[in-house]
Amino acid sequence: MFRNQYDTDVTTWSPAGRLFQVEYAMEAVKQGSAAIGLRSKTHVVLGCVNKANSELSSHQKKIFKVDDHIGVAIAGLTADGRVLSRYMRNECINYSFTYESPLPVGRLVVQLADKAQVCTQRSWKRPYGVGLLVAGLDESGAHLYYNCPSGNYFEYQAFAIGSRSQAAKTYLERRFENFTDSSRDDLVKDAIMAIRETLQGETLKSSICTIAVVGVGEPFHILDQGTVQQIIDTFEIVAEQEGPDAAIGQEAAAEGAAADQGGSTDEGVAPMES
Amino acid sequence: MPKQQANWSPYDNNGGSCVAVAGADYCVIAADTRMSTGYNILTRDYSKICKLADKCVMASSGFQADVKALQKHLAARHLIYQHQHNKQMSCPAMAQLLSNTLYYKRFFPYYSFNVLGGLDNEGKGCVFTYDAVGSYEKVGYSSQGSGSTLIMPFLDNQLKSPSPLLLPVQDAVTPLAEAEAVDLVKTVFASASERDIYTGDKLEIVVINADGIGREYMDLRKD
Q1: Of A189, B65, B118, B210, which has the fewest Cβ atoms less than 10 A away?
Q2: What is the reported pLDDT for A266?
Q3: Residue B30 · residue B185 · CB < 8 Å
Q4: Span B75-95, pLDDT tens digits
Q5: What are B105-112's contacts with CB under 8 Å, separation 24+?
Q6: DSSP letters of B117-159?
Q7: B53 near B76, Cβ under 8 Å?
Q8: What residues pair up with B125 in beta bridges, in sequence order?
Q9: Cβ contact B119:B27 at 8 Å
Q10: What pTM did the predictor assign?
Q11: Is A222 an 8 Å CB contact of chain B?
Q12: C-alpha distances in angstroms, A100 versus A65, A94, A226, B60, B157?
């Protein structure tokens, strides 16, 4: 994307019918570190890569508990993500207070999407620079939604956002048909493997990824590092056997990644993003 | 025309009594389960006790609609606290929150007479007692509600510590063992049910200690 005379304002259309500021906001999501989500009939798993600015600092929080039955993983401007999480938590508390029952996920994502849309149609606002993977359980089952800065939202069986997410998407595309009937533990394993794809060579350790689960009879919670490391250890051995397959998969993924990020991932992450 | 008085009141008194006793490492909170209006009984099986946090339980008598609204409000505030601080609210913190919440409606009060009981951050029992607009105090034991005039003098007789001006400094919490305190509470309610028409049916006893929260029931006079 290059600068042009229609991209100064969010309230200016381009002749081709595009709102460039909104599209630039979606670029911010692509710059953030990866977040993935996948679901089965009864569980939803969220995972993200923890990127710290330097060795001295801690990493930014990218997965938030919204309610016992809903959690969210973000990619992009984490400050915007934090604010939206607070909004979501508030909405859940207010709904529970009035109706004495949990807020259905589908309702929450619509409210979020409408909130994002407002920022695309006011000259004194800017779009939120964060993509949200909303994982939740309600009466109609397990759900995974993706909310983007444009105000659109989609439901997914599995999805990945952020930098090098194409690698994870390729992995998920290969495997998603099995997810519906997956067991909870297999789903977590798949999530960790998908994250590993985005690391592209870097060693997978529990200190650089965060996993969270929500499911039937299991309120939303983030898995502790020890548990995650144990799961990583069980399949690092299997991974050596899978070596040849993984190498082929990674080549295809690398080509896809280069095409869709325009080579800007190596410039370094902007300080406000993660 | 002489000045007319309102013939409709937004409040009603649903009766009942509540008690809380603090021990060295436990806290007993109890309330009867009778809900009445006027001289009628609405139900014999209504809980006046609400768990607000892991180590914090509130018992309230008065107007149960206001009590329910107050409990819901505090539960929502506790959720927000947990999201922001990543931990449960301590009993003293909840005590202050309850006081502020009550005073917020100083000019249209919650008709709710509360006792808050639980363990403080060191695991010691604590009891806080309130009036309807939030004035509160940390005490070793307390009672509220229709039977409190009958119950409080008896608790004073059994549990009141010697003057705090005497040395060595005595703890406000009772030196009684947990089982003895529960027994005392059962005795106290059995006596109150004899003479207070609004107290009776069943007694709900909640005990908080290091192992968590336990609950038991005892039958009271049904007349």
Answers
A1: B210
A2: 42
A3: yes
A4: 999 999 999 999 999 999 999
A5: B105/B133, B106/B133, B106/B134, B109/B133, B110/B62, B110/B63, B110/B66, B110/B67, B110/B69, B110/B70, B111/B11, B111/B13, B111/B62, B111/B63, B111/B66, B112/B60, B112/B61, B112/B62, B112/B63, B112/B66, B112/B67, B112/B70
A6: EEE-TTS-EEEEEE-TT--EEEESEEEEETTHHHHHHHHHHHH
A7: no
A8: B119
A9: yes
A10: 0.86
A11: no
A12: 19, 9, 36, 21, 43
pLDDT at site B6: 86
Q: What is the DSSP letter of A28?
A: H
Restricting to B residues 34-93, those with a Cβ less than 8 Å away from any Cβ of A are 72, 76, 79-80, 83
Rounded-to-integer distance, Cα B95 and Cα A20, Å: 52
| Strand arrangement, sheet containing A70-76 | A63-67, A70-76, A130-138, A141-147, A153-155
Structure tokens given for B210: 């290091």
Residue A17 φ/ψ, nearest 5 degrees:
80, 30
Q: Phi and psi (nearest 5°) for A233?
A: -60, -35
Residues of A in contact with B80 (CB under 8 A): 89-90, 93
The candidate with the shortest Cα–Cα distance to B176, out of B161, B192, B154, is B161
Residue A79: count of CB within 10 angstroms of its CB: 15
Note every long-range contact of A8-15, with CB atoms under 8 Å and residues 24 or more positions apart, other chains counting: A9/A123, A10/A119, A10/A120, A10/A121, A10/A122, A10/A123, A10/A125, A10/A126, A10/A127, A11/A121, A11/A122, A11/A123
- As for the ipTM of the complex, it is 0.87
- Residue A96 to residue B76, Cβ atoms within 8 A: yes
Interchain CB distance below 8 Å, B79 and A97: no
Q: Are B20 and B141 in contact (CB under 8 A)?
A: yes
- What does each C-alpha distance from B30 to A51, B100, B123, B172, B216 come to in angstroms? 51, 24, 20, 19, 10
Distance, CA of A53 to CA of A256 (rounded, Å): 26
For the cut 60, the answer to whether the pLDDT of residue A245 exceeds it is: no
CA angle (A73 as vertex; A267, A47 as ends), nearest 5: 85
The structure tokens listed for B222 are 């049904």
Residue type, A258: A
**Residue A209 in tokens:** 């990824």
